[in-house]
Amino acid sequence: MSIGKHIICVECDFPVTLITPPEGNKASCPRCKLTLTANHRNARSRVIAFSLTALIFLFLSLSFPFLTFSAHGNDRIVTLFQSVSVMMQGDFTILAVLIFIFTIALPGLFLLITLYVYISLGRSSPWTGSQQLLIIMDHIRHWNMAEIYLISILVSFIKIITIADIELGLSFLTYVLFILSMTMSLVNFDKHQTWQWLKEKKGAIDQQLSEHHQQHTCHQCSHLSKANDTHCTFCGTQLHGHFTNSIQKTMALLLTSIILYIPANLLPIMHTYVLGDDTASTIVGGIILLWSHGSYPIAIIIFIASVVVPIGKIIALLWLCYNVHYKSQLSPLSKTFLYRATELAGRWSMVDVFVVAILVALIQLGNITAIHPGFGAIAFTGTVILTMLAAMSFNPKLIWKHVPQGQFE
Ligand SMILES: [Zn+2]
Ligand SMILES: [Zn+2]
Hints:
There is one protein chain. This protein is α+β, with helices and mostly antiparallel strands. Helix content is about 55%, strand content about 15%. It has a domain at about 245-400: Up-down Bundle (Butyryl-CoA Dehydrogenase, subunit A, domain 3). The strands form five sheets. It has a four-stranded antiparallel sheet with strand order 11-10-13-12. A three-stranded antiparallel sheet has the order 6-5-7. It starts with a strand and ends in a 9-residue tail after the last helix. The site of one zinc ion has 8 residues, from loops.
């Protein structure tokens, strides 16, 4: 990596001379505190080793029994694939497909791309498509929800432990190991460092920072482009400085998610059939029921994931849009932290939908007792996806746009 490289911070537009930090350290933006790059020890070989291990464990997870559910003298053995695909019928096919994509397909694809790009970086000339794949990796990173699925399985266990015996299969262990290996791969992955390696291999020449600061930096590869460039001259990504309709897009997505949050709460998320009797439960109804049964920790987890996070996220993004629209200069740093928190927390709202999917997969004892998904689960998934898209379309640079260069918080 070159020493003393000029970049413009992708979140606050502050010009920074970036010096490669020593091994085991990171460099942050002095203004918005964004981690610009982290230099992990043996990063390249660690990312390759952990990604390969994670892929092997994911493959093994699909090969053996995942869970065994026993109640009323019936045993039901479920594989990982069945645990997400059991709803693949009728109106709920879309939900089953989405859960499969979030918990198995995208994590697998993410790991395959990581391996391709990182092995390619070890060659004298990287394989074709490495640049495009690195951009795809960044897009699918947000939709990788494997660890949320694991937490949902544990929540489901606590919900049904009093009515049935649950036995963990070999695939459950390998799924846990897959998530641990993938997390280690992500910990050692640094976006800026990876792009730098690729640029060096491709012989890209960096532009110098002009005095008038009329340039844009690419939010993917941090390559500097001229003021009138609409796309990055190295990787072709549309430059964030040109996202003029960011607020309108965020607002449109937010309003749609608010509308969808109404049926998500009014319609049942789940139906429980016991000897032919149907008991429908909504998100809030389910939380109240858990609380009244004394399952306080689970009630709190579901309440935070399904009520606090989505509502908090919608309010936070509306407030950020309002501030940007009125060109507020007040505490930009706190607003940036709020924006980052909304981006991080959003995915966790999927816990309740995953719990429903797991219960549907496990509890299928014919006429005795069975659980089916409700339309509230589809509406709620729509709300979560829309709020995630709203956070992604918000351009964090707008928070700092009208703040003087010398103001740091
Ligand atoms: Zn910054
Ligand atoms: Zn670029």
